[in-house]
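Incident log, entry 3
Record: Iron chelate uptake ABC transporter family permease subunit (339 residues)
Problem: checksum mismatch between cached and fresh output.
Input:
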Amino acid sequence: MTSSVLVIRSRVRRRRGLVVASALVALLVVAVVSLSIGDYPMTLDELWRTLWGGGDRAQAYVLFQVRAPRLVMALLVGASLGAAGALLQSLLRNPLASPDLLGISGGAGVAAVFAILVLGVTGPLLALAAFGGGIVVAAFLLLAGRHRADGGYRLILAGVGVAFLSVAITNFLMVRAQVELAQAALIWLTGSLASTPWWNVVTVLVVVIAATPAVVACARWLPLTQMGAPTAASLGVTSSRVRLVAVLTAVLLTAVTCAFVGPISFIALCAPAIARPLLGHGSVGIGTSAAIGAVLLSAADLVAQFALPGVSVPVGVVTGAVGAVFLLWLLATSKGRQL
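Fresh output:
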């Protein structure tokens, strides 16, 4: 029996290592392409030389002030949304659970739009406003699913309602705002990585680093809570505490990314749904979901920039289109038909 368990664990580790290595290779390819192409193209030799300080001033500016912050932000946001989606889907045991479908992104977006249009807030305070909006929605959803055996499904339905309410409030704020402010808020609501300064990247990076211990802890605790509260308690894990930490971490990651790049849709839904079949052993797969989310968003940003010649669209347009097709496919599968 012990030998069989060791063999299974060895296979799981090898498969996880293969999936992670493949994701890292995909990230490297996307990163090289993102840094090389554009209105000022660079060869691989020029890119390598500029990375190590050997390029001319124009190459250094394009690489370090235009392309690099946009790429790093795409990787951070994609990883954050992938991890947030994995946390919520594992907690609720529902493949449709994600910050955008649960209304958390909508709540964060409403608070951020209110801060932009009414309070004139920008910068770090905008992130705090978005986090507050996400927390309010998360608290409501937790109350809606409390003491219910089918809380996961009730949370999905409640989240859809909150999402529609958020759209209505946002539209009202947009109609009442000045044209210039409304246009800026509309671009933000679409979700865009364009014109990303380094201070935005650093802020998101600090939050991601601060949230990493909680993500690691949830990756260890969530499989235990899925065995049931009595079993988890016998192993020294309090299910209610894990639930609270997982929700707060998911809200924090969603809100801070929403504040700086807007509500990027469907990455949090798609990344865990892709990671689970690749891992193939029922794992929570939070780290793998984060890596796949980074690949998805950085690749989507490439498509947004260069798919249409001479036209650059916000990355939220691409993720929304691809995510809608993915959601329809998910619902059409055998697992989706059981929801």
